[in-house]
Design brief:
With 313 residues, the chain is α+β, with helices and mostly antiparallel strands. The protein contains 12 helices and 11 strands. It has a 6-stranded mixed sheet.
Length: 313
């Protein structure tokens, strides 16, 4: 399995809601105090402007926007002057209870923003995502990703499927919607990675380096292995000093620090989802002793493995 496939296959999209948006000119939506990640597809109508702290985006028909870590923004027209906070919108299909991403809605939602003659239609997905062993991928992604439909080869498959689910009210909806959302979000992240010519320091930048990608592939294939800087340098066919300097420069942290972070992500999952003892977890993820495992876990999580297991197990 190639490294990108390894990253993507470790992602898990959960708690999905699919919604059809209608935004009338000159109204808009302010996304704030909204914890879920979200994905939007511009289906029809005039272009929108998406304003973020990192810059503004023109959002046209066929474009996709994904916020893999969530984030505040304003969605409206250039002429928009009246923005409604997203949690104050009246969502059709929710009932009288406040909208909650944790709810498993039996059907798709709908929302109408404003009124008038000109309207833009969006299809949206609100979701939570578990990165698991792909956590390094999360830190390399920007807060907002904009894709043209040409940057995502699977776009022509995605949009009709989402549109179908917007009008689906039959049993089994949520089960299908969850799988569809996972496909849509992961395919969009892949489209961004394949179309982006340059990345900031992080796992994605390291993955683009032919030699460093060999080391990253080795780490992710066998994170429990007794890796050292010397062994990883040999995998990358580089000297120890050149490898360590290049890895730190491109990935943003030392090889061992990167390895430890991955092991701690694995350990957290085992601690919360299995009955394994602390010693068994330490051995399973590649630490030579309980003491080393406890020290590294404490450093990254600011609590002991035992405390984490008690809180999440």
């Amino acid at each position: 399995m190639d490294l990108l496939s390894h990253f993507l296959s470790s992602l898990s999209v959960i708690s999905t809601t699919i919604a059809k948006w209608q935004i009338y000119k000159p109204f808009g939506v302010a996304v704030k105090e909204f914890s879920p990640r979200f994905f939007l597809s511009h289906v029809s109508g005039p272009a929108l402007s998406i304003q973020t702290t990192g810059g503004n985006y023109v959002f046209e028909q066929g474009d996709l926007i994904i916020a893999p870590a969530g984030g505040e923004c304003k969605i409206g027209f250039v002429e928009s002057f009246q923005y409604t906070v997203i949690n104050d919108l009246e969502w059709q299909g929710v009932g009288e209870e406040p909208y909650d991403i944790g709810d498993h809605h039996p059907a798709s939602l709908g929302v109408t923003v404003g009124h008038g003659k000109e309207v833009t239609e969006l299809l949206g997905i609100a979701f939570e995502i578990e990165f698991n062993q792909g956590a390094a991928l999360a830190t390399s992604l920007p807060r907002f990703i904009k894709l043209k439909s040409r940057d995502n080869p699977l776009y022509q498959l995605m949009n009709p499927a989402i549109n179908f689910l917007v009008n689906d009210h039959k049993p089994g909806y949520f089960g299908v919607a969850t799988k569809l959302a996972e496909f849509t979000v992961i395919a969009s992240i892949r489209g961004y990675i394949l179309s982006e010519p340059d990345f900031a320091a992080g796992a994605l930048r390291g993955m683009a380096d032919k030699r460093l990608s060999k080391a990253l592939q080795a780490i992710h294939s066998s994170p429990e292995h007794d890796w050292s800087v010397e062994k990883l340098a040999a995998v990358s066919t580089m000297s120890r000093s050149n490898f360590a300097a290049r890895f730190t420069s491109e990935v943003g942290e030392s090889p061992i620090e990167y390895l430890y972070k991955l092991r701690i992500q694995m350990a957290k999952r085992l601690l919360s989802q299995s009955k394994s003892s602390i010693s068994e977890v330490a051995e399973a993820v590649g630490f030579s002793s309980d003491r080393v495992f406890r020290n590294v876990f404490n450093r990254f999580e600011q609590l002991s493995p035992r405390a984490y297991k008690n809180a999440h197990g």
